[in-house]
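Exercise 7b. Backbone tokens:
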């Protein structure tokens, strides 16, 4: 089982960029799909992006499509979220998550959640 772990966020101005990193622990990281979610104040947690275990497929919420890019480095057990053209409405706590099952197909069932990190986009 893969445990999603640390995430590092930050503060950025609107139109700027930020890259989130999530280091996961556990064996067989390369066989689990990974995802990013976010939760804004007063709102439910929402899906942001996911990447298949093979890195061949990526999925995005409509609200971030064309601005965010998810990627992974299996040698480092790390998944990334490159966020460009940030908007104030992207302000939220961001979480990474690992799929529950190995080698699964989309849609994934994320069962291991990392600590969230605050991303604040100022206008």
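Sequence design result:
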């Amino acid at each position: 089982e893969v445990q999603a772990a640390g995430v590092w966020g930050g503060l950025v101005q609107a139109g700027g960029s930020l890259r989130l990193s999530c280091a996961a622990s556990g064996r067989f990281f390369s066989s689990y799909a990974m995802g990013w979610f976010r939760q804004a104040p007063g709102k439910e947690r929402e899906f942001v992006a996911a990447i298949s275990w093979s890195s061949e497929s990526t999925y995005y919420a409509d609200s971030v499509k064309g601005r965010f890019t998810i990627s992974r480095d299996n040698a480092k057990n790390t998944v990334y979220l490159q966020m460009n053209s940030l908007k104030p409405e992207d302000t939220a706590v961001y979480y990474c998550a690992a799929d529950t099952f190995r080698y699964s197909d989309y849609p994934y069932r994320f069962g291991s959640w990392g600590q969230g990190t605050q991303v604040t986009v100022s206008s």
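Instructor comment: The radius of gyration is 13 Å. The mean pLDDT is 91.
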